[in-house]
Amino acid sequence: DVKVTQSSRYLVKRTGEKVFLECVQDMDHENMFWYRQDPGLGLRLIYFSYDVKMKEKGDIPEGYSVSREKKERFSLILESASTNQTSMYLCASRTLDDYNSPLHFGNGTRLTVT
Amino acid sequence: AQSVTQLDSHVSVSEGTPVLLRCNYSSSYSPSLFWYVQHPNKGLQLLLKYTSAATLVKGINGFEAEFKKSETSFHLTKPSAHMSDAAEYFCVVTPDTGRRALTFGSGTRLQVQP
Which of A4, A30, A103 is opposite residue B102, by nearest beta carbon? Predict the structure, then answer.
């Protein structure tokens, strides 16, 4: 079974702090994604990557950056956390070997910025 | 480009009655389609997937979905709802290339009344 692991389940940070959310997958997947989920807004794509060192902006990249130095790890960075970034963050991965392959999700990180 | 519309944001059923969650899609190619379920404070779990092998797809927990190309629909059904089915459900369509992200519907919250 594919395992996508997000390093923290709950995180509390202060406004202005630099925040790192880490995601690791164990199945050699090419595609990795970061979403945020807020009540009434569904899942919104922040960034995704289709290869090491490659990244693409999603629908709401402002205030975020990402890093993919190794294939198995995709990090989301909040350069200067703000209260409007309080949210549930979900990481996912997918292989590109099979066009029909689904996304595999981590359990999420609930971030609170105070 | 592709799009997904989940026609109901909330559905409420009584335990033991049938469930119908509706999903329409549009696409310029032949996509794969998925249904995911999310229980409170959890990540998303794959319920089932359509990959053009069969139009009626069976998933976990007694759910199934029928792909209807003429109606561009992929509705999720279950003959008899259980209290544990209360969750949020997402319909998802694959892109035409691995360099694009999957497209999510806005979600349907299923309530199951005792």
Answer: A103
